[in-house]
Amino acid sequence: MKTSKRIKINSIFLGIILILLSINYLLINITISNNEKVLKTKLNNEDQLLLLHSYDFEDDVVGQIPTGITLSVNDPVDSGSVKINNLGDEQQNHVALHKSGGSKSIRLTDNISYYGNTYEVGELHFKFYHDNSLFGIHLRDSYLPGLSGILFAIDLWNGIVGRYGVGISYTTYALNQWIEFIIYYNIYLGWMFEIDGIRYGDGYSFSFENENPSGVEFINWGSAYSGGGDGYLRLDDIAFYYYGSKPSILIDDSGAGDYTWSEASAQTWCTGEGIPNNPYIIENLIIDGGEMGSCLEIRNSDAFFIIRNCTVYNSGKYYPNAGIKLQKVSNGLLINNYALNNDYGGIVIFDSNNNIISGNTISENNIGIYLHNSYNNTVSGNIVNMNSLYGIFLYCSNCSTITGNTVSINEIGIDLIDSNYNTISGNNVNINEIGILIDSCDNIIISGNVINYNEIGISLRFSNSTLLDNIFSGNNQDIDTFPKDVHIDRFHFEIVIIIVAITIIMIFTVMIILRKRSTSRRVFSDEDKETLFEPTGLITSQEEKLEESVKKKGFKQLYCHECGSKLEPDVSICSYCGAIIKDNFKDSENF
Description:
Among the domains are: 2-30 and 493-521; 49-243, Exo-inulinase, domain 1 (Jelly Rolls, Sandwich); 530-585, no CATH class. The two termini are 27 Å apart. Strands 16-20-23-26-29-32-35-38-41-44 form a 10-stranded parallel beta sheet, with no helix packed on it. Helix 1 packs antiparallel against helix 3. By secondary structure, it is mainly beta.
């Protein structure tokens, strides 16, 4: 009976301990699952920047229309002409578009879809010489009449570069001299242009006319239909380049990668010397990871470098692959890059210090920006949207600054775990399940953030954080803390759990001892007491009989270890209290 009770009590103890350990396990561990994604961006070519075709018109005949295989002209007799001309300057032969009245547009068209492809990412290079008349450059995804099919247009009028008949002005240029002009576009991002080496709309920040752009098929240079004045637009050295996806790149200064920095700098896509005033620069790459490894990875480097204006996508599915990955790296600047549709991470940084991640667009990855065991890094001015797990995630990473980012439509916007002395300031954190989550961190400053329309604005768990001047709006709950209103870190919480567990065990141990003693004493019921202690002298007479019996049998006197009563020799159970007689008390004169 007593053995079964002990088994039951021990089972209770074991159950309590298992519950406490399970709670602790759930609080400590965090699971990151990899969700498969559908890749939207697909580029088909193996090389990086490829020349589709170019025209310098030197072999064409002055006074005739240009002869390029993809070129065509539209020059109604009453509106003007499109002919080869020569001003006798260094440009020599060129195409001259002459608007001379009428109500129709004159145009030069380059049908770049002639080869059977459309181009999602590309560059258009040309030189122009212009007076004060109104001309425009149109990039189109179909050749429909009028404005239909135009992805975007740039207008040139009286020395101004702009849009909508120069209703929007971007910059100016000198009249009647040759100007170098480059247009860059990426249908997933936008477009930008460069005039005489100065870039406008950097980072593809200009938007398309159509909401759902497709690849470019036609390029038009043309006059206004009416208005804008008569005049010339002269064109020369036309070249169209398209981007294919480049295989993944691994730079490891220990020699274990595709290149060391010195080897990489000999490639067309990398320049510089790796010093503060002349860092290595990798720019304008588009890299398809092919679902294997990271697209662009730097390891074991303390050289100064910049990665900018690169598009990285479709990296390997599993941890820790990424669009851009740094491991054991310092002195890096990642700026104005696009990390899209990477199954694990957009930008992932391991064991790396003193790097800057700024102005990047990170979308539709599992994790947007991930810092692991990294210190003194700056994450600023990034757009981190629509990542399935975390927007910005720091794990065991200290002394870093997260500022000025837009973090929206992620499961958790900004998440810090076991990361101390970090500052989160001036971010826009909107429409996430949890806006900012701080878990098991010390000395975190959260200030000046705009935190709107999240399920929980800020969640603090076992953390010591300072909240200053944050703006909350439309959240289901602005601030949540755990444990409620008690700011203790996880280490001290675990100590509390241990103390509580020991206390519970001690309480149950005391209860068992008390229960056992109570059970022993219950043998003396009221009826027993009347019998044992009535004035008849029963106990005395019984003791006398025992003593006499023991003496006759030649045994030493036996006593009960519980109640001290004298017993018959060789008995196993005390007849007074019911206690089981222990062997070490038998045949003993001493209790």
